[in-house]
Amino acid sequence: MKHLIIIGAGGMGRTMYDMARESIGYGTQYDIRGFIDDNTSALNNFANYPPVVAPIQGYKPKENEIFICSIGGAARKKCMEEIISKGGEFLTMIHSTARIGTNVQIGEGSIVGAFTTIGADAKVGKYNLIQSYTVIGHDSIIGDWNRIDTHVTLVGGTVVHNEADIHTSAMISHNVIVENNSRVAACSFVIRRVKEGTTVLGNPAKKLM
Predict the structure, then answer these.
(1) In the chain, what is the greatest distance between 2 CA atoms, to the nearest angstrom?
(2) Considering only CA atoms, which of 113, 105, 56, 106 is closest in space to residue 81?
(3) Distance separating alpha carbons of residues 42 and 53, to the nearest angstrom
(4) Residue 105 within a domain
(5) Which pLDDT score is estimated for 74?
(6) Helix (H, G, I), strand (E, B), or coil: what is residue 15?
(7) Which of 58, 85, 112 is the last residue of a domain?
(8) What is the per-residue pLDDT across 118-154, written as a single tens digit (0 to 9) for each?
(9) What are the DSSP calls for 149-190, one per residue?
(10) Residue 209 has what pLDDT?
């Protein structure tokens, strides 16, 4: 049995605790040991959670521990890479209500939220955060380290490179490419390529000047 450590004990960390208890493998492949957070008092006013076992800073993974990360923004990758560099392993966590199509590939450390659909023959890389109620269409290709928020729709054949943020309720049209380090604003409808490092918003989405 693996022992899950949740990085970050804030609101998203508490949400991920609930999600972890509802995901494939809980109770059979892993249990939940607790949280790590530099604010070791983060849960003092909250009942019914496992403890903050240590600060994040300097934490060394122990035998049979696995991790998920609730920290967002630029700090997420840095925090996870520090744990990986010390031999830590991140759980590929798939909520029990997610619908995963035929031949779908999901890489190490990716998180798939509740009621999410990933269509046939889609490929999802490593360390992605795919939140609840999102649809990833057939034959889509998702790289590594992406954040895809709730209620996003990626129509079939969409390509998302690496380290992109696609925010709540955005829609990416058929065969559109979203390049590295780009951002799609909430509720945007994207019908053309999103170039590397840019932010787009609106319907149809345009580059933010």
Answers:
(1) 51
(2) 56
(3) 11
(4) yes
(5) 82
(6) helix
(7) 85
(8) 999 999 999 999 999 999 999 999 999 999 999 999 9
(9) -TT-EE-TT-EE-SS-EE-TT-EE-TT-EE-TT-EE-TT-EE
(10) 60
Query: Mean pLDDT across the stretch 2-23?
Result: 97
What CATH number has the domain bearing residue 43?
A: 3.40.50.20
Domain holding 153, by residue range, is 93-200
Rounded distance between C-alpha atoms, residue 154 and residue 170, angstroms = 8
Alpha-carbon span 152 to 131, nearest angstrom:
9
Q: Are residues 81 and 97 part of one domain?
A: no
For 187-206, what is the mean pLDDT?
Answer: 97
Q: Cα(98)–Cα(140) distance, rounded to whole angstroms? A: 17
Q: What average pLDDT does this structure show over 66-83? A: 93
Q: According to the model, what pLDDT value does residue 39 have?
A: 95
CA distance 23 to 100: 13
Taking only Cα atoms into account, the Rg of the chain, rounded to an integer number of angstroms, comes to 17
User: Distance between CA 127 and CA 174 in Å, rounded?
Assistant: 24
Q: Are residues 132 and 63 part of one domain?
A: no
Rounded to whole angstroms, the Cα distance separating 66 from 20 reads 12
